[in-house]
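User: Batch of two.

Assistant: Item 1 of 2:
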Amino acid sequence: MASIPNISTGTVQTVAPTPRQAPAQNVSPAQFASQAADRTLGAPTNVGTVQTSATADTGAPVLKYAQDKKGTVDGNGECFTLADEALKQNGMKSASDYGRVTPNADYKWGKPVPLNESKPGDVLQFRNYENTTRDTKADGSWNEETNSRPHHTAIVVSNDGKGNITVLEQNAPEGSPVTERVLHFGNGTAKNEDGSSQAQKTKGVIKAYHPEPK
């Protein structure tokens, strides 16, 4: 289950500053992205080494299953079910092959891989994930969005290797169908040449798993 994003707007001058774990000041957007990795993401990865579309790999049929379900509710609508069915229907091991499945377990879905090296068709398992992103314009106005996934499962569509991963998921928010969206995992502030900036703060644990055949 995941909470509905909370969005607010206003001006930076009227909001008390919040301490952030910024890797560096006055970095470029590209540097900010590469510094996004923390204990959740692991070491930064060159975007050129990360697949942006499924290849002839165990993840390809898993991703296709999820893509075919886009806009619909798969099975009982739980986030677990989308990943479970995508794996089982394609001859892959699922969570029950790695241990007991209980409602609040931290499921294992395959071979563990670093989050920032996850590829299309890999499965993500979330525990207490929360990301707050604030975009500030040069005139001082800002927009802030917070996304959280307390206990959740999703399938990777693409990964830019810089802390931004597109996923397919359902039941986020509760009752929603299979939906594609980008989730962010940055920590820090990036300032742009036009005077605008983006600040991100991420917490929680997200584990990535590569599908394994039975």
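Item 2 of 2:
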Amino acid sequence: MSSVKHVLLSLLAREPLSGYEMKQQINNRIGFFYKINNNQLYPSLAKMEAESLIELQSFEQDSYRPPRKVYKITDKGLAELKAWILDPKDTEALSDGFILKQYSAWLIDPDLLIPILEERKREREALLQEYQEKAARFRELYGPIAYDSPWFSTVAVIERGVIFERGYIEWCEKMIGWLKQKHL
């Protein structure tokens, strides 16, 4: 529930939304790295309302339509979201919960975020070095690896890790620079 809760709080920190609008925002804004289904959405909203993280507002519409229900983040919800963004441990089993946290980085003072990004960059640099060394060892052991060898796929996947980590490191560097400049 925690990642769903924080995704919803991230959206509501920007503007009040209906459940339908939240689903659309998830699909359009963060769907490339995070998915949610209706079975998660509405029970999570109910639980968050019970925890006073959000509040439900109803707005009357034309007489033939039911009231429009819109969720709004509370001060408690905003504090929860900010604490989650700054918590280096709580990234759950998301493909990358850290990136999900950065989606709401605009809520946090850059001086607090920069050290977190610098630490993440160091972690990714260590992973990059590990992948590069591992790929080099395989190449040293097996020389040119034919496409029909199991080692071919092994090294190809490791090389994907190298490419991924380089991109991650580059993004961290850019993010740190943008935060220092206080704009993109």
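DSSP finds seven helices and two strands in the chain.
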